[in-house]
Amino acid sequence: xxxxxxxxxxxxxxxxxxxxxxxxxxxxxxxxxxxxxxxxxxxxxxxxxxxxxxxxxxxxxxxxxxxxxxxxxxxxxxxxxxxxxxxxxxxxxxxxxxxxxxxxxxxxxxxx
Length: 112
Description:
One of its GO terms (molecular function) is copper ion binding. The protein is α+β, with helices and mostly antiparallel strands. It has a single domain (about 15-110), classed as Alpha-Beta Plaits. Helix content is about 30%, strand content about 35%. The protein contains three helices and five strands. Helix 1 (about 20-30) runs antiparallel to helix 2.
């Protein structure tokens, strides 16, 4: 049994924004452009990270972006263009299991 074509593989992409306003703008743009089927804007979290040699702390708002492999680069480019950070966190994980109808919905909503 084979899976979907490589470009149709569903991904969960994640990004942290500095505040709810930026997070909502990014989410709205990704969905409006058809780059993501859905973006969940989470509650603020505390991030502790190393930046330019110092340990930093910041409250950030996580984004959980459902898209497909064929849209990954476009999602990354859109986030980079909308995000105020010099180096925003943009990561992607493959979704290996899920409700088939949901995964198909993600594919339909993000068709190129």
